[in-house]
Amino acid sequence: MSQLSRGKAGPVEPHSGGTAVRLNWLRAGVLGANDGVVSTAGLVVGVAGATSSSSAILTAGLAGLFAGALAMASGEYVSVSSQRDSERALLDLERHELASTPEAELAELAGLYEHRGLEPGLAREVASQLTRHDAFAAHAEVELGINPEHIASPWHAALASFLAFAAGALLPLLAITLTPAAARVPVTAAAVVAALAATGFVGAVLGRARPATAIIRNVTGGLLAMAVTYGVGALVGHAAG
Fold first, then answer.
1. Amino acid 21: pLDDT
2. Residue 92 vs residue 24, higher pLDDT
C-alpha cells in the first residue's frame, strides 16, 4: 500500500507513528546520499584539476568516501544516542509519576485534551478511557510527544547514514575513475547533475515541496562545489608543477 492512499475525497495522509518514522529514515537516507555525491564529487574533481593520475584520484576518492561515511555514521550515532537517552529519562519519570500520583496524572491528561479544544467533560472521559487502555502510552504520546514503541536506535541510524553516504559517494568516484582522462570532469559533472536532480526530486516529494525548486537548488550547489574545488585543484597543481 502506498504511503499516500486515495479515497473518494482525494489523497489521505498517513498518520501512523510507524509511517512517520519510515518517512524520517527515508529523508535522512536521501540527505546522506546527497552529501556523499556532493562531497566526493568535489574532492575527486578537485584532485583531477591538480593531476591526471588515476591512482591519485582513486585514492583520494576512496579516502573521502570512507572518511565521510564514518564521520556521518559517528555523528548520527552520537546524536541519536543523546536523543534516546533524553527520551528514556522522560519516559522513566513518567512511569514514576503514574505509579506515585495516578489521579494527578489523569487530571493532567484531561487538561491537555481540554487545552486542545475538547469540552471538560469529554476531555475527562477521553483521558479516563485512554488511561484504562494504556496510561503510559497515552501520557508519553500526548504529554511528551514520544511514541515508546518507536524510539530510534543509534546503531541503526549510524549504519543507515554510513550506507547512504557511501552509496552517494560511489557515483562520482566510479564516473571519474572509469572515464578516459580527457572526459573525466564533464562526465563526472553530468553524472552528479543527474544524481542531484534525483535526490532533490525525492527529497521534495517526501517533504511535500516543489520539486523544481529543490532540484535547481541541489544541482546548483553541487555544480558550484565542483567548480570551486576544480579551480583550487588546478591552481595548486599549476603552482606545484
1. 61
2. 92
